[in-house]
């Protein structure tokens, strides 16, 4: 099981800013915890010990000088290893990026630095964020801190595991089809996929550009709200960034759900969902109802086609984005007599099996004679899903569903059957296709004692309402555990 409950990011920052605790002591404590458990869990591709201690000393110097280092002063943050960090290896857990050190920081990394947060390491992921278990990494799998025989989910499994193991109070991941929310559910932490465009994607190594979104992992709803406020907001370096400030979230957490209309998505609360997960879902609905929400059943008919549409759109965009890894500009290069042979050998050696599978699927879907039948049709399904959500939000303020169909499964249980693995994302994919926010909130455990998360979904830029409901669910769980 995980180590004892660690202080929240909010409490750490308050102590460091107030001078009652040093940032160095905070970082040293987390590094000691990493040294103890990381060899068994493998949450990180790289632990930035020296860099983190130097950053902590700079925070302490600012406090001593009477300056305020920022709202996350001294708080360790783990970064998914597909976020660019200047001068620090960024691998996407792929051999193809061997030796690459970005010449710039991702916008979210820069915003974290300005907030006083301290990057403690780069976390493991499914290669290029393609997977649901963090078993597709070129550097080996990450294990679930609650049970080392089980997966942490994916693709941001390293970030989820780092927070669950108390290696860092906060982490960032990316969510293309559920890659923040699903591992958050399996590891028992809070995970948020914001509205597409609320958080800058500048410096995120692209998987599927119309779906990718960066978001927070945290142990509490309050911590997740603060982190999203810090990394959110317009960025002129990202052409898809929404031209408005970050949402105000911390200030709404105590407003409750009285009078809110919340719909349980019928298509995601039946066949294919484990009975213990459904039980937690209905318990969550009861909590919200007792808090004053009006609960009913919602319908998103096209959601059932989301998985099929996603696995055409995402691979198609990936096949285009990954064409840049050619052995010429950066990363791995396998020399050969001709350029074409060098390209082929470099990609053969550099990409793993799942990435190759998706590149081939996406290239086929975009090829002459098949574009309209596959990619074009998938985009039409995407529009149907967007329209179905719009109709649902005419009746409801929020929607509710499971985050993952099951609790964490055993390592190796699904690696030989890609389709079975893909089904892990059936509840999370619709929000990505619609570009809408959704978050996973820990809500009890399954019959096997492993964490269960419930998913709250909101309309575009509906994060404040979503976080209000999340705070109610979290408070109920705290009351139950007393």
Automatic annotation (TrEMBL):
Keyword DNA repair set for record? no
Under the heading PROSITE patterns, the entry gives: AMIDASES (PS00571)
Looking at the keywords, is Nucleotidyltransferase present? no
Pfam families given for it? Amidase (PF01425)
Keywords tagged on the record:
ATP-binding, Ligase, Nucleotide-binding, Protein biosynthesis
List GO terms (cellular component aspect).
glutamyl-tRNA(Gln) amidotransferase complex; mitochondrion
Q: What class of enzyme is it?
A: ligase
Name a single GO biological process.
translation
From the UniProt record, list the reaction(s) this protein catalyses: L-glutamyl-tRNA(Gln) + L-glutamine + ATP + H2O = L-glutaminyl-tRNA(Gln) + L-glutamate + ADP + phosphate + H(+)
* Entries under InterPro entries matching the protein: Amidase, Amidase_CS, Amidase_dom, AS_sf, GatA
Q: What is its EC number?
A: 6.3.5.7
Annotated SUPFAM superfamilies: Amidase signature (AS) enzymes
Where does the Amidase domain lie?
26-463
Q: Name one GO molecular function term.
A: ATP binding
Q: Which family is this sequence assigned to?
A: Belongs to the amidase family. GatA subfamily.
What this protein is called in its record is: glutaminyl-tRNA synthase (glutamine-hydrolyzing)
């Amino acid at each position: 099981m995980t180590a004892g409950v660690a202080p929240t990011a909010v409490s750490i920052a308050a102590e460091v800013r107030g001078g009652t605790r040093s940032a160095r002591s905070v970082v040293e404590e987390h590094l000691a915890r990493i040294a103890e458990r990381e060899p068994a869990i493998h949450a990180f591709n790289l632990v930035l010990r020296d860099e983190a201690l130097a950053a902590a000393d700079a925070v302490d110097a600012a406090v001593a000088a009477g300056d305020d280092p920022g709202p996350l002063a001294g708080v360790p943050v783990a970064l998914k290893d597909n976020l660019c960090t200047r001068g620090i290896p960024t691998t996407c857990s792929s051999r193809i990026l061997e030796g690459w050190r970005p010449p710039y920081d991702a916008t979210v990394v820069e915003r974290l630095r300005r907030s006083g947060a301290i990057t403690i390491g780069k976390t493991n992921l499914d290669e290029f964020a393609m997977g649901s278990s963090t078993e597709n990494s070129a550097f080996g799998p990450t294990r679930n801190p609650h049970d080392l025989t089980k997966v942490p989910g994916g693709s941001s499994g390293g970030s989820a595991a780092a927070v669950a193991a108390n290696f860092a109070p906060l982490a960032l991941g990316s969510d293309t089809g559920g890659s923040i929310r699903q591992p958050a559910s399996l590891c028992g932490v809070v995970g948020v996929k914001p509205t597409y465009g609320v958080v800058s994607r500048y410096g995120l190594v692209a998987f599927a550009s119309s779906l990718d979104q960066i978001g927070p992992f945290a142990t509490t709803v309050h911590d997740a709200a603060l982190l999203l406020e810090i990394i959110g907001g317009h960025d002129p370096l990202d052409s898809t960034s929404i031209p408005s400030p970050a949402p105000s979230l911390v200030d709404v957490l105590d407003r409750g759900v009285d009078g809110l209309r919340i719909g349980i998505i019928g298509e995601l609360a039946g066949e294919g969902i484990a009975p213990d997960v459904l039980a937690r879902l209905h318990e969550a609905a009861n909590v919200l109802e007792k808090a004053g929400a009006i609960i009913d059943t919602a319908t998103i008919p096209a959601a059932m086609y989301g998985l099929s549409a996603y696995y055409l759109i995402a691979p198609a965009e990936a096949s285009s984005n990954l064409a840049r890894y050619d052995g010429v500009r950066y990363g791995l290069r396998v020399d050969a007599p001709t350029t074409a042979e060098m390209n082929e050998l470099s990609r053969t050696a550099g990409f793993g099996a799942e990435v190759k599978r998706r590149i081939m699927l996406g290239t086929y879907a975009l090829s002459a004679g098949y574009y309209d039948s596959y990619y074009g049709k998938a985009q039409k399904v995407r529009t149907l899903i967007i329209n179905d959500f719009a109709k649902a939000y005419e009746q409801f303020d929020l929607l509710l569903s499971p985050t993952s169909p099951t609790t964490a499964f055993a390592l190796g249980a699904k690696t030989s059957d890609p389709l079975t693995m893909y089904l892990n994302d059936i509840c999370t994919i619709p929000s990505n296709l619609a570009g809408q926010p959704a978050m996973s909130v820990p809500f009890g455990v399954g019959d096997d004692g492993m964490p269960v998360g419930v998913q709250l979904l909101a309309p575009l830029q509906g994060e404040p309402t979503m976080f209000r409901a999340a705070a109610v669910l979290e408070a109920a769980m705290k009351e139950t555990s007393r």
